[in-house]
Structures are given as structure tokens and as C-alpha cells.
Specification:
Helices cover 0% and strands 59% of the residues. The chain has no helices and 13 strands. A hairpin with a 2-residue loop joins strand 3 and strand 4.
């Protein structure tokens, strides 16, 4: 079994997360949590993370985000797969533990204070910001696995993970001042697995002015 996490940054004139995430073949995705973090150029930016558990090899079909008829000014989707996690529950519910969100206005970095991670567990982290030219990265305890940008309105997105249960925070740092939102999610290791492994799987970057 493979946990699939989809992190989405979208922008619109009203605050809205995707109503559904689907690859229409072998997965139903459930919302884990979300954060809205700024208004720029008439658009509100949203960051959300979705999960699903897929048996066997994930299909190669495209993953779609449906915003329920609300027009978006832009969208970034980054898709990750994680093995060695708890496969119980519906749509990967057992693989995801506690979560945390953070927002900052006009900063060159954003800090997430992680919930206490159980022994053997790790964390998935991601952030979004409103500078197209910026390149964010998490601190050294994390492996950066995804990055995307689009222009209208200026937006960026990065993600990373750690297998260490001893971390207490994550700091995403960029080059310029921006409004930023970030999410951390505890990854629950399977019983007896010893460790889990996260792999950057594929990404979709769409600019929808």
C-alpha cells in the first residue's frame, strides 16, 4: 500500500479549497487540512493537503482538482508517495497523525511548530508564498522534494519531509519578503516497519489567469 499526498496552492477572488481531488481510477482523496494566507492583486491564496491510500502500484492517470465551479487565477499541485506507513482506515486515515498550520505576513521565512511526533514517525511539510521569483527550502532536518511557481498572481510552493521523530519545528526560508502559509502533517509509520520512505512522485503546475 502507498500513501499519496497531494499539496495544492490555489488563488481566487474568494477563499476556496478544491471541492474534490481525484485521479478517476483508483483513488479517493480526503482533505487533511488547509491554510489561507494572503490577498494580493484581488486574489486569496489557499494551501491544502489531501491524502489517499492506494493498493499496489499507483496508476498513471492524471490527477484533477475540481473547485466546484469557482474560477481560479492559478493552481499548483505537487504529488508525493510515501511507503512504510500505517495502511489502516479510509483513504489513508491511519497514515496521517496530528497536523499544524502557520501563516505570516511579509516575511522571508515561516516557522511551523510541529506537534509531538510519536517514536518512529516523521513529518510531511509544505508552504506557499506570493513571490514567483522566490525559492523556499526547509531547514536542514528536512529533505526538500517539490517546488513550483506561477506568475499571475505571483505564487510559489515547496514541500519536504523528515523521518526523524525528534524534530520540534520546521522553518521554510526564502530570499524575499512575502505572505506565506505552511502545513505540517505527522506521518505514522507502519507497525514493525522501522522506517518509512517518501518519494517525490510527480507534479502538475498550472497557470490559470
Amino acid at each position: 500500500n502507498t500513501l499519496v499526498l497531494v499539496s495544492v496552492v490555489n488563488s481566487a477572488v474568494s477563499s476556496v479549497t478544491p471541492s474534490t481531488i481525484s485521479n478517476r481510477v483508483d483513488a479517493v482523496y480526503s482533505l487533511v487540512t488547509f491554510a489561507d494566507y494572503n490577498i494580493i492583486g484581488g486574489s486569496i491564496h489557499m494551501l491544502s493537503v489531501w491524502r489517499s491510500m492506494i493498493g499496489g502500484t499507483p496508476s498513471s492517470s492524471a490527477i484533477s482538482a475540481d473547485f466546484g465551479g469557482v474560477n481560479q487565477t492559478g493552481c499548483i499541485m505537487v504529488v508525493h508517495e510515501v511507503s512504510g506507513v500505517d495502511a489502516s482506515g479510509t483513504s489513508g486515515a491511519g497514515a496521517v497523525g496530528s497536523s499544524a498550520i502557520s501563516q505570516v505576513d511579509g516575511g522571508s521565512s515561516i516557522t511551523l511548530f510541529l506537534p509531538t511526533l510519536a517514536a518512529g514517525n516523521g513529518a510531511f511539510v509544505c508552504d506557499g508564498w506570493d513571490l514567483n521569483s522566490d525559492t523556499d527550502a526547509p531547514n536542514a532536518q528536512y529533505v526538500k522534494v517539490g517546488q513550483g511557481n506561477y506568475n499571475v498572481p505571483a505564487t510559489g510552493h515547496a514541500s519536504g519531509w523528515t523521518s526523524s521523530s525528534g524534530v520540534t519545528q520546521c522553518v521554510f526560508s526564502g530570499a524575499g519578503a512575502a505572505d506565506r502559509g505552511a502545513i505540517a502533517i505527522e506521518l505514522v509509520a507502519a507497525s514493525g516497519s522501522g522506517a518509512f520512505y517518501q518519494q517525490y512522485y510527480r507534479s502538475l503546475i498550472a497557470d490559470m489567469p
